[in-house]
Amino acid sequence: MKIKLHQLNDAEFRNKIEPEVRETLMRFPENSDIYSMLAVILGFKNEFDEALKLMDIAIGLEPTRVGPYITKAAILLQAAKTDEAFKLLNYCRTISKRIPSVHWNHALVSLQNKLFAQGWSDYRWRKTLKLSITRVLDIPELTREINTEGKTVLVWTEQGLGDQLMFYRFVNRLAERNITTNYIVEVSDEIYTLLAKNNKYSNVKVVCRDKDGNLPYDYDYNISIVDLPDYLGCEKEEDHYLLQEDILVADNSIRDGWKKHIEGMKELKIGLCWKGSKEHANDYNRSMGLIDFEPLKDCGIFFAVQVGTDPEEVPEGLDLKFASEGLVNMEYTTALLQELDVLITVDTSVAHLGGCIGIPTFLLLPKANEWRWANGEGSSYWYPSITMFKQKEFKDWSYPLNEVKKCLTQFGQRIAI
Question: What pLDDT score was predicted for residue 15?
Fold first, then answer.
């Protein structure tokens, strides 16, 4: 039975393959890999107790092999048992220091615990695992030892829009630190105009690929945008702060277009994003349905900051305006958000956009939140305008929504004064 891990991101595939895996396990009860495969499937279904029991059996069958320990650590992370996962990963590092998945998972836990020096160093192991886009370039990779005076460096993008927005602040730090170096910064089409118009540095040129996928520029060195914190030596929490010069704004002409639709509305104006991309490995946990927001129906007027999702029934009483046709790219979304009072969003690129423009943002997180949100509660060191609200139990949004409702009530009272 040959199953690739990325296939398990598909819920339909998981449901189809689970009976076959269970049947195979019945025939080969001494095969630790089959126990691990079934445990991974159950982990995606949030059935952690059974998954961890299966991994203990797998480890018992091959106690000197590091693979089952790594799989168990990954499931512990899914189960929001971060401390247990960290201990297990540290044990794995004593067995072998050259296994990429050990370093990768160790990076995620280190960064979540704000252990930045080790975290950013281990984060580079994603390339070996091919977990994101990689560039095959015939120019050297930038390292700290290289003198870039008078040279040109390509800063290339490899992950989603949210990561590009989050890591872009480090481009600004780079430009300030090395004023005699020129930087060509590749970004996705959707955020090109927003970042290009907000560029404040003469030694930075923001670009996107042409229709043939090429970058028609010459450069001497290259570095991924997500490797900039490691290159810059970001070891303290304050090294990651969003500064005033990092705040993004939309063109006034675009903003004026939204004003015409919104001016005169007396109620609290709330942006709403309830779904992320279906392709995301954790989308089954992070995305919500419109029906979940029924408790907030009396809190104000909602504007859907949402594109590319299937139609959903709007809960009765929820005043929701759909603006997707006007959200041409991230600059148009920025313009709309700048006219609103507050944003409510799940963990997707819109959350990062809200943080980058400084709008009060209420971020709804699953119980096992991603590393970038630390413990997933209170304020975010990445974005001062974001407040995080995390589930108490998997798939149960009642607690974070109740807390958001309290905040919206207080927020509405302040706006009305």
Answer: 86
Count of residues making up the chain: 417
* Residue 84 parent element (H or E): helix 82-95
- For the record, the structure tokens of 222 come out as 């290259």
Nearest to 401 by CA among 295, 284, 286: 295
User: Contact 82/111 with Cβ under 8 angstroms?
Assistant: no
Helices (H) and strands (E) in the chain, counts: 17, 11
pLDDT digits (tens, 9 = 90+) for 61-75: 999 999 999 999 999
Please state, in angstroms and rounded to a whole number, the distance separating the CA atoms of residues 176 and 118: 25
Of the candidates 26, 403, 22, 337, which has an alpha carbon nearest to the alpha carbon of residue 194?
A: 337
pTM, whole model, 2 decimals?
A: 0.93
- Please give the biggest Cα pair distance in the chain: 70
CA–CA separation, 228 and 381 (whole Å)? 17
State phi, psi for 265 to the nearest 5 degrees. Answer: -75, 120
- The model's pLDDT over 235-247, given as tens digits with 9 standing for 90+, comes to 999 999 999 999 9
DSSP 7: G
